[in-house]
């Protein structure tokens, strides 16, 4: 089993996270931000990862620290659980429709952190979740996990649908990329860093 568990404590947040890459898509998530909990639950389901996350953050200030730190700890756990990355598919990509929206997430578990993000959102918030935090979460996750991540929402009118399509597509792409398909390191360099 590819498992990782971590605790992250700062003056702004206290987060416990556990990830099983070989799970069944189960989630037990409580961050204090309802819409974000829903998105992380979708990410778990569509990736096939089991994700447990309990977060207490300074939500009286805003949601920024909590969402960003959840991205950091989730990325760190995924990286740890992948160990030396031997045998993984490495690449994943998903075009995902949600009603009027079409989103694509493509990624490479390369060891080289990068984020390309193209998504226009009109709303400031969805519930108590700040829409600007979608990009911040994705950046924190990708940079901590060592993933090259491209996120493109081609079209859509409903911001809820756009964000949901991103998280579902991210889950599907991660599920593809982390599949064990052999025993070789998937790099002609002989390393993924």
TrEMBL record:
Documented EC number(s): 4.2.1.19
UniProt subcellular location: Cytoplasm
Superkingdom of the organism of origin: Bacteria
Known catalytic reactions: D-erythro-1-(imidazol-4-yl)glycerol 3-phosphate = 3-(imidazol-4-yl)-2-oxopropyl phosphate + H2O
GO molecular function ontology, one term from the record: imidazoleglycerol-phosphate dehydratase activity
InterPro entries in the record: IGPD_sf, ImidazoleglycerolP_deHydtase, ImidazoleglycerP_deHydtase_CS, Ribosomal_Su5_D2-typ_SF
Keyword field: Amino-acid biosynthesis, Cytoplasm, Histidine biosynthesis, Lyase
Keyword Lyase annotated: yes
Species name: Longicatena caecimuris
Pathway per the UniProt entry: Amino-acid biosynthesis; L-histidine biosynthesis; L-histidine from 5-phospho-alpha-D-ribose 1-diphosphate: step 6/9
Keyword Nucleotide-binding listed: no
Pfam families: IGPD
Cellular-component GO terms for this entry: cytoplasm
One BP term from GO: L-histidine biosynthetic process
UniProt family annotation: Belongs to the imidazoleglycerol-phosphate dehydratase family.
Name the record gives this protein: Imidazoleglycerol-phosphate dehydratase
Name of encoding gene: hisB
Top-level class of the enzyme under EC nomenclature: lyase
